[in-house]
Amino acid sequence: MTVSPALIPDFIQAVTAAIDANAEEVTLLDQAIGDGDHVTNLQRGLTTLGGLAPELSAMDWSAALQKIGMSLMSSMGGASGALFGTLFLAMSKAMRNQAMELATLAEALTQGVEAVKLRGKADLGDKTLLDVLIPVAATLKQAATESWPLPQVLENIPRVAAAGVEATRDLPAGKGRASFLGERARGHLDAGAKTSQLIIQAITRVLEDATTA
Ligand code: ADP
Ligand code: MG
């Protein structure tokens, strides 16, 4: 299956709805171990992307991802603005002259995750959004290598993302503001991991609808 950039407005709308619907919960998470602004940072970014949606849908994937990354970096603020920006810019580079398919997406997300790791000096187990993004990228790679049928991909990706966010609960915080709390961060989910999971779940649903319609 090849995914057209024409779906970008649907992705943005679905992600915005998912973040809005869970805003209170995520704010409570970020208030417990961060400074409480993660959802409003993300909502600011999504509002900006919403305004750009028609323009983005007319671009190729590489150009659209570049614009998304730069817009998030300048509109969001916070650690997460720089990190999501880095993610999309690295994905843009990997998608140059490529159609969006399972194998190219897997490679682009892998490159994006590597860039986020470098930028934030963080890795799996630091109680960040990487605890969701790393296993999701690895699963996509496996799916591409083993040529999983699409329904298997769409079923497994949200499951892996949910397991990733749940895994942050019992971790001490290693990076970002929460790291000041260290051990005391145990018992709380990481806010950025939660929103990353919500984003991945929303994107998967749009793809599901687009392929079963
Ligand atoms: P800030 O921490 O600047 O207030 P946000 O509240 O928007 O920014 O985002 C916080 C989220 O960013 C955290 O929940 C965590 O998932 C993620 N994060 C923070 N620092 C890092 C890092 N070094 N690497 C990866 N993710 C990080
Ligand atoms: Mg914050």
Sheet with the most strands, sense and barrel status: none
- Give the bound compounds: adenosine-5'-diphosphate, magnesium ion
Number of helices: 9
CATH level-two architecture: Alpha Horseshoe
Q: Would you report the number of β strands?
A: 0
Query: How much strand content do the residues show?
Result: under 5%
- What structural category characterises the helix and strand content? mainly alpha
Q: For the record, what CATH class applies?
A: Mainly Alpha
Describe the fold and architecture.
Helix content is 72%, strand content 0%. The chain is mostly helical. The chain has a single domain, classed as Serine Threonine Protein Phosphatase 5, Tetratricopeptide repeat (Alpha Horseshoe), CATH 1.25.40.340. α3 (38-57) packs antiparallel against α4 (61-76) and α4 (61-76) packs antiparallel against α5. The two termini are 14 Å apart. Bound molecules: adenosine-5'-diphosphate (ADP) and magnesium ion. Adenosine-5'-diphosphate (ADP) binds at residues 30, 34-35, 37-38, 41, 78-80, 83, 120, 122, 128-130, 175-177, 190-193. The site of adenosine-5'-diphosphate has 22 residues, from α3, α5 and α9.
